[in-house]
Design goal:
single chain, alpha+beta, Jelly Rolls, Phage tail protein beta-alpha-beta fold, 16-stranded mixed beta sheet, three-stranded mixed beta sheet, globular
């Protein structure tokens, strides 16, 4: 592994790391469990090393899963390996990093394509991660900062007394919430925020002017309340807000392996489908951004969806050995 020789770790330490990792993926994990995990991580350097070994093993197992015909690994010899495999199947990857020079704690979580996972946070807040999603959380005494790097996540924020804000950074915008439940989807630099409970404040991360439905926001931020959905388009620096009402819950359909779209650009739709599709969809020589799509997608019905797209838009669908190609109709 890059010429680095790993020092042997006691099997019981590795087993404990695997058990902690599996426990933290439970949907009802308690703040007390998370605190106990943090204490275990900080107790000894070997504990942190063991936890990182679990991550490395999981990455290798995922790569092995893609080439099962060429490589087979013996994963039943140790309990901690089995725990890592179970984690991979339900939640993808999770990694913990501590910065000794700072009191802030950084946690990173990610899921593979078509994977859905849970990311427990130290304050009791919960994050559900969609397929091919990556987040980073930095907790300090002053703030709770989350960065959604790619994909989609649903945040259930635990209210705290005091001024420690919960802020999600995604693309060029920041979403500030307290005691709130909301979904954030990032596709390229396009970000959609759907609030299902409470309210959030949306602003440009750099504090610059924000266009709210084409009008300059006086305080450079917008308040989005339950039942509303806001989409930020970086090309126009515009935040468009629509009221979905009870339909706002449809934004969470991805948790049931179903994607819902409403007047979304077709290229955005394809990019999101690729986070769940069993076959990768490539777009060639066609500007799908000019077309919008409203409808439902289920990964198990990919072929039916492709037929509908070919009939509804000026495109052709080709199946290749690597996946699916969408191109201009000749």
């Amino acid at each position: 592994m890059n010429g680095v020789t790993l020092q042997p770790l006691a099997p019981e330490r590795l087993e404990a790391a695997g058990q902690w990792w599996a426990l933290l993926q439970e949907p009802d994990v308690s703040p007390e469990d998370v605190s106990a995990w943090l204490e275990w991580i900080e107790a000894e350097p070997e504990n942190r090393d063991a936890y990182q070994r679990i991550q490395e093993l999981t990455q290798r197992l995922r790569a092995t899963g893609k080439q099962q015909s060429k490589t087979r690994r013996r994963i039943s010899q140790m309990k901690w390996q089995a725990a890592a495999l179970v984690l991979l199947s339900v939640a993808g990857l999770a990694m913990w990093r501590m910065h000794p020079e700072s009191p802030a704690a950084t946690m990173a979580f990610s899921t593979p394509v078509a994977g859905i996972g849970q990311a427990p946070l130290p304050d009791g807040s919960k994050v559900s991660l969609g397929g091919a999603t990556s987040i980073e959380a930095v907790y300090s005494d002053a703030s709770r900062d989350i960065r959604l790097k790619e994909g989609e996540a649903f945040f259930e924020v635990q209210h705290e007394q005091g001024d420690r804000a919960f802020i999600v950074q995604s693309g060029s915008i920041s979403i500030r919430a307290v005691g709130t439940a909301f979904n954030v989807r990032k596709t390229g630099e396009r970000v959609t925020v759907t609030v299902t409970e409470g309210k959030v404040q949306v602003a440009r991360s750099d504090g610059s002017v924000l266009l709210l439905d084409g009008v300059v926001s006086e305080d450079r931020r917008a308040m989005i309340v339950a039942g509303q959905q806001a989409t930020y388009d970086p090309a126009s620096n515009r935040l468009s807000v629509v009221t979905r009402g009870q339909d706002a819950q449809r934004a969470l359909a991805w948790r049931e392996q179903q994607l819902e779209f409403a007047d979304d650009p077709l290229d955005t739709v394809v990019a999101n489908i690729n986070r769940y599709s069993p076959r990768h969809i490539e777009v060639r020589d066609v500007d799908l951004h000019r077309h919008t799509y409203t409808g439902t997608f289920q990964p198990s019905r990919l072929d039916e969806w492709l037929i509908a797209i070919e009939r509804s838009f000026p495109v052709e669908i080709r199946t290749t050995s690597d996946g699916v190609v969408i191109e201009s109709r000749k």
